[in-house]
Amino acid sequence: MGIHGSSTTPVFLENCKVPKENLLHEIGRGHIVAFNILNAGRFTLGASCVGGSKNVLTTSSKYAKERKAFGKQIGDFGLMKEKLAEMAIQIFAVESMVYRSAGNIEAMMSAATGDKIAHQMKVLEEYAIESSIAKVYGSEMLDFVVDEAVQIFGGYGFHEEYPVCRAYRDSRINRIFEGTNEINRMLIIQMLMKRAMGGQLPLIPAAVKLADEIWQGRHLKRRQKACWRKKRAWLQMQRRCFCRQRAAQCRSSVRSWRMNRN
Ligand SMILES: Cc1cc2nc3c(=O)[nH]c(=O)nc-3n(C[C@H](O)[C@H](O)[C@H](O)COP(=O)(O)OP(=O)(O)OC[C@H]3O[C@@H](n4cnc5c(N)ncnc54)[C@H](O)[C@@H]3O)c2cc1C
After folding, report:
1. Residue 48: CB partners within 8 Å, gap ≥ 6?
2. What is the pLDDT of residues 86-118, one digit of tens each?
3. DSSP 47-107
4. How many whole angstroms from 34 Cα to the centroid of ligand 1?
5. Whose CA is nearest to atom 3 of ligand 1?
6. Region of residue 124 (left: phi > 0; alpha: psi -120 to 50; beta: else)
7. Are strands 72-73 and 68-69 parallel, antiparallel or unpaired?
8. Which of 31, 111, 207, 220 could disulfide-pair with 247, CB 3.0 to 4.6 Å?
9. Distance CA 211, CA 232 (A)
10. End-to-end CA distance of the chain
């Protein structure tokens, strides 16, 4: 027996009795509560990144109107306009994503009949994928926004006296806590595949249909003369090849799942 005690129980927990009223859930099912707390935390984190990034955008656009270089307001330079526009676009994308999911979650929550707590846990579990996506996409959007804000402030962006310096430093932790973005990325795929294999999500039929279309060559256009059309066709083809690979993986997963079941 090492410092961690026997098999799985740490020394300090051996002989330790937890009062019944302190149990998170039924015995052996406390992890469900813990996971759902994480899901709610991830979604909230993604949503809070929107508020934070909006403040940074407001501060940056105000500064861009005040700061002059080469006799002009820096906000009048095309590249500065592009930065501010890109920041606004990315914030809008995350805000829309969070707004829509929040609406869905709220609608499902309010449709509770019977045990309200059990229903809420079910809803949080149902939206676990969206919560992880909101966390990853929101935190990376915030990082992008604060990075561009530092750039707009130039050298002053690096000074503690200016607000974007702190925003830049504080933003970084969001990609680490509530499950690192790497772990959340893996979770998203795992959860999607689990639901696809369980028949809750019609991902496999969609991938198989796409694969069939590619085999039939329906999407190959041979005489596309305009350059942009060629590029678009090439991109579409790449996307379809990627989907086809996923479909092949799905097929072999389904095959091994069926074999194991039998
Ligand atoms: C300010 C702050 C507040 C916190 N608050 C809380 C809190 O309130 N409650 C709480 O429970 N925790 C909290 N934490 C802990 C936080 O959740 C962890 O730091 C975080 O989950 C990452 O775990 P770790 O630090 O052990 O990193 P590690 O697990 O050591 O990970 C290190 C790196 O390896 C990568 N990695 C690990 N495993 C894999 C894998 N399988 N595949 C690919 N990459 C992998 C990670 O993505 C990361 O980049 C807090 C942390 C900080 C810094």
Report:
1. 138
2. 999 999 999 999 999 999 999 999 998 888 988
3. HHHHHHHHHHHHHHHHHHHH-EETTEEGGGSHHHHHHHHHHHHHHHHHHHHHHHHHHHHHH
4. 16
5. 177
6. alpha
7. antiparallel
8. 207
9. 19
10. 41
Q: Give me 195's structure tokens.
A: 């639901």
The β-bridge partners of 159 are: none
Count Cβ neighbours within 10 Å for each residue of 192-206 and write b for 16 or more, e otherwise.
Answer: ebebbeeeebebbee
Residue of 95, 130, 148, 178 with catalytic role: 178
Tokens of 114: 């019977």
Q: How far is Cα 74 from Cα 153, in angstroms, rounded to an integer? A: 10
**Ligand 1 pocket at CB < 6 A:** 173, 176-177, 179-180, 182-183
